[in-house]
Amino acid sequence: MIPPKEITYAGGGVLSAPPEESFVLNLGPQHPAAHGVLRIKMTMDGEWITRAEPVIGYIHRMHEKMGENRTYAKFLPNTSRIDYLAAMHYTHAFVGAVERGARIEVPLRAEYIRVITSELQRIASHLVGWGAWIMDLGGLTPILYAFDDRERILDLMEHICGARLTYCYYRFGGLCNDVDDYFLQGARDFVPYMRGRLKMYRALVTDNIILRKRLEGIGIIDAEMCRRYGVTGPVLRGAGVPYDVRRAEPYSIYPRFEFAIPHYPAGDSMARYLVRMDEMEQSLRIIEQALDQIPAGPVMGKVPRVLKLPAGDYCYAVEAGRGRFMVRIVSDGKDTPYRVKLRTPCFANLSPFEEASKGMILPDALAMLGSLDLVIPDIDR
Amino acid sequence: MNPTLEQLSQEFTRLIGPVPTAPAAPANPPPPVQVVDFAVRGVNLDVTVAPGQVVAAAELLNRHGFSIDTITGVDWLAEGQMEVVYDYLHFAVSLRVAVRARVPRDHPEIPTISLVFPGANWHERETHDFFGIRFVGHPNLTPFLLPEDATFHPLRKDYQP
User: What does the alpha-carbon distance between residue B49 and residue A123 come to, in Å, rounded to a whole number?
Assistant: First the structure.
């Protein structure tokens, strides 16, 4: 039970002899701070954590097996159920992998709409992560504001594709529906509205001394730890690495837009917080540019009636709300995939938790857990 | 010093060395180190190594500052083999490397790279769950996503529920 290594506790004390009395604390699988059915087996020395081992798999659905026994089109809706808070990004990756394999051209208007909806989705996803995290820290109000804003995005999404959460809007070769003026005007109105709200959130939450005391210097995950564990997304950018799939492996029409990649070098929970707040502003910038440039035209390209990918393997990565999401399709030339691998960001982002939480006190570890912005179905698939 | 594609290809070619040709191998086997078109495949470099060389490959990429992206398996039932695919990415340069190794299906064992990349620990546990590939030297190869008493491997092509 006692970890062999020497442990430095938060506050500076060093554990050299094994603690005289330690106990195991099960956080979850039913615990509000775990945001779903995540269980963390914690070995405690009083208030301090000597070992925190995440136990996952409670909501495992074997999406990868489902991918092997149905056609590409039938598997597409599954991908929006992996991370239900960023469904657009996940369908984008799968659609992109199939389009890459089958060499399907996507019309320009469809690409613009994909970018607009993806960035709206990113804001919606960050808003939930932000609100729920502040709620973990004891502030109940912000999540109500966040859901109010998110509601506007969900209404727009519902208008174009009928779904509010698990969208299947992107299709191989384009989109299932064109957008109308109601959506375009709604998205245009949302930009200044959200800018005003973000200003308010800065005054209400970001500059709040209680929040800063809870987050600054807590839960350091530095760039080297991110590299060894394959951590991506806001957690990596909060460690000062300006890595974003939209820049590193440009997909769709992201190279057409000007946007910054917010990154903060501190590597603590506050840095991850600031990255997410800045990213929402950058998403608004992208939406604004895309709305100005969007061309007329079709939203669906030429797609063969029976979709078969040439034998080989194809990868496609997107910058999802929580980091790098990659789909690897191995095809043997039939109309169903031979193998679908889903590389999800939360799985990799949770993996350094055991190392990073060693020697922390429990409330700090929960603040750090919230800063990872985990979606448990995304870990378990 | 950021790595370049040419430099990596050369180092991998040196690492792999001469590939022994099996008697039943096809006449023109694909080269073990291939620079591929990113727009078509989604990777820049595709490397095939022997199962014993995966740790050396991981160390090579670790020296060049790569990060582990994911590890997965593919079951090639007809050929009696299982493939382990290691994906790597680099945070500073846009380079994606896929390293693959094939193990016999009736004896699926491959060394662990979790001592080089601790992030590989979870990916290897997942691959063991789904394919039953044993990662020799892994610190904790117990069921991870599957139930804790699971003895089946659902992504094997001959798996019957």
Answer: 42
Tens digits of per-residue pLDDT, A180-234? 999 999 999 999 999 999 999 988 899 888 888 888 888 889 899 999 999 999 9
Does the distance separating the beta carbons of B65 and A317 come in below 8 Å?
A: no
Give the whole-angstrom CA distance, residue A102 versus residue A177.
Answer: 22
Distance CA B87, CA B119 (A): 12
Quote the pTM value: 0.88
What ipTM does this complex have? Answer: 0.86
| Whole-angstrom distance, CA of residue A124 vs CA of residue A283 | 11
Residue A23: exposure state from Cβ atoms within 10 A (0-12, 13-18, ≥19):
exposed
B100 contacts on A by Cβ (under 8 Å): none
> Nearest 5°: CA angle at B33, between B31 and B39?
105
Q: What is the pLDDT of residues A260-295, one digit of tens each?
A: 999 999 888 999 999 999 999 999 999 999 999 999
Domains observed in chain B:
5-14+30-136 (3.30.460.80)
CATH of domain A63-380: 1.10.645.10
**Helical ranges in B24-140 per DSSP H:** 38-41, 54-63, 120-131
| Cα(A342)–Cα(A317) distance, integer angstroms | 10
Name which of A263, A315, A334, A378 to mutate to probe chain B: the one with the most chain B Cβ atoms within 10 A of its Cβ: A315
